[in-house]
Amino acid sequence: MLLRCRMTAGIVCDGRRGRQLLLPGGVPVLLLLMLLLLLLVGAAFSAAVVAAAPAAPDLSNASASVGVDPERGDDSHRFVEEVPQAAAAAAVRASSAPPVAAGAAATGGDGGGIGLTQVPMEHVQGLFWPYELPFRACFRIPVLTLASGTLQPSDAPVERLFAFVEARAYFGDHCPMEGNVGATAAAPIASPNARAAGQQAKPVMLDHPCNGIRRNIYYKHSDDGGVTWSGLRHLAGGPLDCLASVGALFDPSSGAIVVQWSSGWFDQTWQVRSYSLGETWESPATLDQDLGPAAGFMPGPATGLALASGRMLFAGYGPTDWGKGPFSVSVWYSDDQGNKWSLSEVTGCFTCNTTLSQFTGSVSESQVVGPLGPGGPVLLSMRANGRRRAALSYDGGATFDELAAPPALSLLDTDTGLSAGMVALSDGSLYYSMALAADNQRTHMSVLRSDDGGASWPRGGLVYPGPCGYSALTALGKHGRNDTVLGLVWEQDRGACLDSSCAVMFGYVATALPVVPPDAAAALAANNQGSRSDHGAGGGAAP
pTM (2 decimals)? Predict the structure, then answer.
């Protein structure tokens, strides 16, 4: 290759000052050499970064179906029906918390607990973690349901534990993750669960969190009592859908898993059933024709109740007059395996509307549990600011009377209220999970136990002392132990995310809880002092 020189100050060419070697076309040789050196350095740096980074999960054998946004005609808002197990396991490992130590006392101080003893847990793990979905969803509002059956006619019966959650793609309402992407605010909320053409929709509430917001329902299941879990599965909702507040139960009389939710922010109430332990699901159907004044109410969010008689019950909440006034609570039940639903009557209350079959005034997220001991009543527990409200039914959930509930069922809650976990065992014991902090804030996840139908709570323990939110409970059997264990899911902070709902955790809690220390007993007793008729005041905002 021929080189030529030209005069340039300060450059040596062929030993003579002022001349520079050039390639054909006038490109300086030194400039080319400098560019090559920069490329070599960049390549070496990239190789070092790749070598230091963790290996990506092998997705070559993953089975995941990708949905296409019908509004856009492309996959820019795609969702994964089932996240590959390798990726799910990696997310669990990254988010798992170590079991807490036994016997450590909960301290007071700034944001301290009420004085419960910290109890040991087993199989503690991060169950839902934001990076499990392409749109980096915030997982909130967990619900647990234990089902049993066979996957194939020739299979042995299995118990399958389900955990349902909302996957939200937006900021706010305790969803602090960065990078969330949802539908644009200007986009309509087009849904496969949309109202039939020509049917009048209810008025849209101002400032509600469903304007252009993506909220879908996902779940995982476990066939070993929660020790290991399946990959993430998508149950309902599309890229522009806003579905919220899951209620779920297992109906032994039909072998069905029954799941309900609300769409469009109290627009419609929906139901779907699975007769194959969650492997396949029937098409969703609206319940509005049955629920009357409770049409559009949000179920739970909680586990529903299936009684030995075959009756199924769910509690739910919604606005009393569509944007005018606080929320109200209703209970609905079915005696034909979920084909038709009826509202339970309200026969006694502090604040209610008996015509609409609603408890009113500062109540929202609710759960029905029971029976409270053999032949005992069914309990309705309702979120209310500072203290919960409760009602009892002595006719299998056909009617509920708030005045019949003992004062101790007005359980301690946070200042603004939370959705609590409750479960009643066949031995008559009743369990309650809640953030119980000295300052009534969302910290110190705790579990209480009552052996007299909620008239007293002499046993309990602290599960997690940090920021925490919603929770749910279910009984899991003994699993090789002397006593039944409880499965608990709860929201909590994680790593650099300091909010109360950064991740959804799971773990075992023993039913043999320690005796509540005197200071904690005094705090619980002080909560139930005075008149309970003040429950009607306040807002009752959710969640």
Answer: 0.77
